[in-house]
Specification:
Radius of gyration: 17 Å
Strand content: 25-35%
Number of domains: 1
Number of strands: 11
Distance between the termini: 23 Å
Structural class: alpha+beta
Low-confidence stretches: 191-208
CATH class: Alpha Beta
Shape: globular
Oligomer: single chain
Mean pLDDT: 88
């Protein structure tokens, strides 16, 4: 499982209705995208939910790396780059995923929480702790934990049917959710072989 997000920050006076119309017209195009577990079309709007910026920041969970690579080299991403400039794409190794009690309801809100790992922290323990802490609140649609082994940072992404039970510094509105491979995303820690994916990722990171 691979997690991915890019953020396009727009001018303070940008008409965000343009983004809403763009998603309404084109969001369905990823509803059957090969390799995609889910794509949440996310926005933040200046002055709403405490956001200081206007931003389009979709979040993806891929159940195949090939699907992610094909998307980044495909027409949809080229079109986005032509309209807004090619964004920097954050990429994490997905380490845990779970569905919540509201998994069948359309999510309206998303939160992202970043956790830098201390230099003396054990990454495996931190990953397990974050996975164990994934909540089961009534409004939770789904949640994922992902690792950036370059910055040594954990990211927790949560989708909510309404608003999160507690304030989050990074809160987004969900304009559309594509979930063609939602049922293929591994529940619990990402077990894609004889060893958990986080352990393989950490072993690879230690290898010159």
């Amino acid at each position: 499982m691979q997690a991915m997000q890019y953020a396009i920050t727009l001018p303070a006076d940008y008409d965000m209705a343009i983004v809403h119309r763009r998603v309404a017209a084109n969001g369905h195009r990823t509803d059957d995208l090969p390799g995609l577990g889910l794509k949440a079309y996310l926005v933040r709007e200046r002055g709403r939910d405490g956001s200081p910026v206007n931003q389009y920041a979709p979040f993806y969970l891929w159940h195949t790396a090939e699907g992610m690579a094909d998307f980044l080299g495909g027409a949809g991403f080229r079109g986005l780059s032509a309209d807004f400039g090619r964004p920097a794409v954050r990429h994490w190794l997905g380490t845990a995923f779970r569905t919540g009690p509201a998994a069948d309801a359309p999510p309206r809100t998303a939160t992202r929480t970043l956790h830098p790992l201390a230099a003396d922290a054990d990454p495996g323990e931190e990953i397990a702790r974050a996975a164990d802490a994934l909540g089961d609140a009534p409004g939770l649609h789904s949640a994922a934990v992902a690792l950036d082994p370059d910055r040594w940072e954990l990211a927790v992404f949560e989708l909510w049917a309404d608003g999160p039970p507690a304030p989050s510094p990074d809160t987004f509105r969900v304009l559309h959710l594509s979930r063609p491979g939602f049922h293929l995303l591994p529940q619990g820690p990402d077990m894609t072989g004889p060893a958990p994916a986080p352990a393989r990722a950490l072993d690879a990171a230690r290898t010159p």
